Amino acid sequence: MFVTAPDVGQSKPLVGYLDDKAYFLASRLDDHDWWLVGIDVRRGKPLFPPVSLASNTVYRPDCYLNGPNTVLCLRLDGTSTIAWVIQAGTGTVTFRGPTTLTQNPGHNGVDQVGIYAIASEQGRGVSGIGNHAELTWFVGGHGDTDQRYRPQSDLGDPTIGTQVVGGPATVRKVAFSLADGTVLSPDLGPQRQTLDAVVYPGGFATEAGPSGRLADPDEVLFYDARAQQVGHIESGGRLATSSRDVPMIVTPAGTTVYTPRGTPLARISSDGAEPDTVLIGTRLMVNTGGGNSFPKWTQYDLRTGKQGPTCEDNFGNYLGSDGTVAVLRILDPVRGRVAKAVDLATCNRLWTLQAGVNSDAQVWRINTTLVQLSNDGTQLMSLVAP
Predict the structure, then answer these.
(1) In this structure, how many other beta carbons lie within 10 angstroms of the beta carbon of residue 259?
(2) Given 228, 257, 272, which residue is the final one in a domain?
(3) How many CB atoms lie within 10 A of CB 185?
(4) Please, are residues 339 and 325 in contact by the beta-carbon 8 Å criterion?
(5) Tally of structural domains, the chain
(6) Are 282 and 265 in contact (CB under 8 A)?
(7) pLDDT tens digit string along 192-235?
(8) In Å, what is the CA distance from 49 to each residue of 74, 88, 242?
(9) Domain limits at 207?
(10) Residue 230: inside a domain, yes or no?
(11) Could you tell me the CATH number of the domain that includes residue 134?
(12) pLDDT value of residue 84
C-alpha cells in the first residue's frame, strides 16, 4: 500500500519527483514492511523493482531526494540510524549502513529542501549529505532553512537556500547553493550589511542597510543564481518572505510586485501585512481574505498590472493549471473529496474529484501529471480533465 499512516491526513507516501520520475514509500502497516518504489508517471511503468527498507520493525523510514541522481532513506534501528543511498534511475543501493544523521526534521535532523537533503544542527548551521550518508559542505548559522515548506510551484524547485545568521536579535540571512554549499550573499564592506533575503526561481534578492544591530534596510539588491547583481532599487519597505515566485516589497502604503531584476510589475492593495501569493502563468493570486477558512484570492495580471476577479477558493492548495483552469488539492476524507477545478476567468467551480469516504485517496501533481491514489491505497493512476 502507498500509505504511511492509518490517518490519511498523516499519510505522506510521496517522497518527491525528478521530472517524470516519482518516488513513493510503500508499506504493509500491519507487519511493518517498507519499500521505496520508483515510477515513471508519464508511461505508468516502474523504474526498478521495489527496494526493501525494513521488515518487522515499528520504525518508519523517511526518504529524501538528494540531488538529481540519488534518493536517501533513513530508519531508526534501536538507538542508531541506518541509511540507504539509492540510485534514482536504477534503484541500486550504493550504500547501506549506520549514519550520524537523524530523522528529526527542523531540529538537528534532515530536511527536504528543493531536491536536496540538508542536515541541520540547531544553533550551528546546515550541511550537505554525501554518497555514504556523511556530512559534506557546511554553512554556519542558526541551523534552519527557509525553503523547507515551499509550496507547489510552476517554476520548479529552488537551487538556493537561505539561513538566519548572527545573534538572536538579528534578521540577517545568508544565501547559499543547495548543491555544494557555496555562499552567495555579497560582502558589502564594513559600512553596509545584508539583512533579510528571499529566494526566487533563477536567483534571490536581499535587503541591505547600514551596519549595526538594529539597522533598517534602505535598498534591495537583486542577484541571479550565480550571485551576479542584476538589479537594485532604493526601498522604504521590506521583502515579502511569503512570496517565493516573484519579488514583492511591502510598505505601510501597499505592496509592489517586481521582476527578478527589480522592474515593477503591479501594485497590490494591502494593509502593510505580507499576503500569501501563488503565481499561475502571468496571474499572481493574492490572498486578501481571512486565511484558509474564508479565502479571498484576488488576481493580478502581471503583464498589465491590472486587478482581476476574486475567487473564494483556497489557492494555497494549488496543484497545477493549463493557463485557464486551476486544479486545487482537497483533503476532505469525511466527504470524500480530493481535488477541484476552478475557471480562473470567472472563479466558477468546474468539477470536483470524488473519492471514497474516509479512504486513503489523495492527489498529487508530479511534474506535469496529476496522479491519484486509489481508495484502498494500493493503486496509482494518472488523471485527465473530465
Answers:
(1) 15
(2) 272
(3) 21
(4) no
(5) 2
(6) no
(7) 989 999 999 989 999 999 887 677 889 999 999 999 999 999 98
(8) 19, 12, 40
(9) 146-272
(10) yes
(11) 2.40.128
(12) 97
